[in-house]
Amino acid sequence: MRLLDCTIRDGGLVNNWDFSEDFVRRVYLALSQAGVDYMEIGYKNSPNLVESKGVGPWRFCDDQYLKEVIPEKTNTKLSAIVDVGRVDIEEVLPAEESHLDLIRVACYLKDVEKGLELVKTFNRLGYETTLNIMAVSNSMEHELIEALGKINTSPVNVAYIVDSFGSLYNRDFEYLIDKFKKHAPDKEFGIHAHNNLQMAFSNTILGAQQGVQFLDCSIYGMGRAAGNCPTELLLGYLKNPKYEIRPVLEVLEQLFIPLREKFEWGYIIPYAITGQLNEHPRSGMALRNSENKNQFAAFHDKMTTVETMDS
Amino acid sequence: MRLLDCTIRDGGLVNNWDFSEDFVRRVYLALSQAGVDYMEIGYKNSPNLVESKGVGPWRFCDDQYLKEVIPEKTNTKLSAIVDVGRVDIEEVLPAEESHLDLIRVACYLKDVEKGLELVKTFNRLGYETTLNIMAVSNSMEHELIEALGKINTSPVNVAYIVDSFGSLYNRDFEYLIDKFKKHAPDKEFGIHAHNNLQMAFSNTILGAQQGVQFLDCSIYGMGRAAGNCPTELLLGYLKNPKYEIRPVLEVLEQLFIPLREKFEWGYIIPYAITGQLNEHPRSGMALRNSENKNQFAAFHDKMTTVETMDS
């Protein structure tokens, strides 16, 4: 089993990747001391294909810059994620010239073939790879089964179940893990959970019990909207003596408590509502950025009325 | 299945039961509109047996006072809890003269016989009863089995599993539910979970799936230390059409968001640490009331060093 901490990557969606070099370096050292297997240090999207103005460097993970910030690598491997259509493979060095060990490709189910094309490229360049299927709660079963068949014959190392909307309960993850095992039996699996319904940690340890090998987490749960499975809870739960919670508690109190005063993430009611409705959290994020940020009942009315209008 | 909202009772441990009459009335109406089956409106401890100075009226639930605050009862029944040794049965009216429908007796495993004596008294007075076994995570199996045998032959209606320290995972609750079913087969069961490890909701819905009949919850999770299973998440999860989330969202935004600015509860790291260590949260509460409230690593050191010194 391996832990992948995605604090800087998913947390960057909260603060536009505005983490200082010192901040990122301290997180890397803490995760290393804690025995965390991978740190996802950002996106490897191209500055030419996504908005780059006012966006911190962890959105792009320039290889030279990574080497400056982290002069010495530890046992904790580095990972970056790319979105289908937003990466320029000409900008990606061969793995042996990069600090990155793992590149994860995120895509919706409909784009699995595009995602697997990217996987092949990164695989040829020498990287470990994952394919992260987003919004899996909104997929039709026959499409999922077809996609898993393609994944199983691809060179990808790990297939990830991504609960983008934070709407899944234990029984849903159990169902999906069974499907993944059945239709992509030759692959390892991963879980990336969101905490809209306070289920992220519970779903992640359910995955661990069911043999899922890659568990995503983030310090203090930092991540978009409701955030992720907290790294400190996973470290406290796992019995493997290689994991230590203390280094993470240290950066948590030094870096993340002050940060949480400036930016919000976690269990916030509009995200619970979008999770219950199996909806993208963007409407909740818009509410929280408005004057009506605490008008939960009206938000609930709006979200449930739209469904009727769509019929 | 029945929901029991204990916001005023367990939340009272956060603010010394300093809820206004208007506040409690609005919570009662909201829970009624939401279809919640029981509202636990406080403790029924005796002012002569617990500290009463500076403590709000919901610590004692005087019958006359309850009738003034809630002139008209709805379909939502009222409940109060008592602690073994802190209730004066001379102060408890027969059920037909009281607004209370249910009296819950809380005790540690070692006091089950005392608890069942109280249960018998309340049962004779015409109340529904539960026996809530606190700190069940710290009990020895043979003592638990013996106690469940006594419970099974007593007049109590419901036996509650109480995760006082918020230290239990799904598999622990599953184990305990099996034990309760096996050794007290003639009783209904209940779950009262705490959220130290972000497991309160997950454990509660696990209970529901396993046939547990009474589910405790509180609005916005308000309760001592890490708080409880959020009522709004349970209402969103349950498919029974009698439950409505909207009335709870309304009081949540009007009453509980402002209250949370003044008092803290919920996922706070020292409570995660005490949960991981299966310890009472009191040391975490002391830390949060000190100048060192965010010194998590030092707190972790202290809590784990004590264990060694005890050996």
TrEMBL record, chains A, B:
Q: Which UniProt keywords apply?
A: Manganese
Q: Name one GO biological process term.
A: L-leucine biosynthetic process
Q: Please name the Pfam families in this protein's record.
A: HMGL-like (PF00682)
Record's keyword annotation contains Iron = no
Q: Known InterPro entries for this protein?
A: 2-IPM_HCS-like, Aldolase_TIM, PYR_CT
Q: Which residues form the Pyruvate carboxyltransferase domain?
A: 1-253
- Gene3D superfamilies from the xrefs? Aldolase class I
A molecular function (GO) held by this record is: 2-isopropylmalate synthase activity
Name used for this protein in its record:
Nucleoid-structuring protein H-NS
Q: Which organism is it from?
A: Oceanobacillus zhaokaii
Q: What is the lineage of its organism?
A: Bacteria, Bacillati, Bacillota, Bacilli, Bacillales
